[in-house]
Write a structure and sequence with these properties.
The protein is globular, with a radius of gyration of 16 Å. Strand 1 (about 5-10), helix 1 (about 15-25) and strand 2 (about 30-35) form a beta-alpha-beta unit. Helices cover about 40% and strands about 15% of the residues. Helix 1 packs parallel to helix 7 (about 160-175). The protein starts with a strand and ends with a helix. The protein is an alpha/beta fold.
Length: about 190
Amino acid sequence: MYKILVLFAHPALQKSLAHKSLFHEIKNIEGITCHDLYDAYPDSFIDIKHEQTLLLNHDIIVFQFPLYWYSCPAILKEWQDLVLEHGFAYGENGDKLAGKKLMLAISTGGSANSYSDSGYNEHDISEFLLPFSQMSKICNLEYLPPFVLHDIHKRHESPRIARKATEYRQQLLMLQQTDDGSVAKKIEGN
């Protein structure tokens, strides 16, 4: 069974129904480590060695965050800048993450249709996530299709969010059990 590390970054969790639901749904699953970066580092001083040890001890890394201004919250960007060091994650002798997998679990305020060539954002969601895809490539991580919860600003959507939280849980449970090269195909088919 694969071990999964969920790096959770939400700067205003008290206001979030969507991410509270997603995070709560996976918190107590054996083999999944849920690591809230804002909770662990309220002063923003990231313990690089601890974070690198967490990465080494897990097979699948999930970045869970709300998409703010087409990017991740500041602490997750700082985490990437500090933890994914040359000589550890990339560059000379930087092969420590090779063969591991990365998946994003994100929310957006806009609808799925707004993330298209003809939509409000004029681009597919995957285009906004290119920095993560490229980071995966540089770090020799397998980049998995993202889990996306769109339209989180709709009112009275608790049942839909609960369904998506269950889907998220099921997807992570499936990833834990996948032991061949068909991870991306299984996720896309789900």
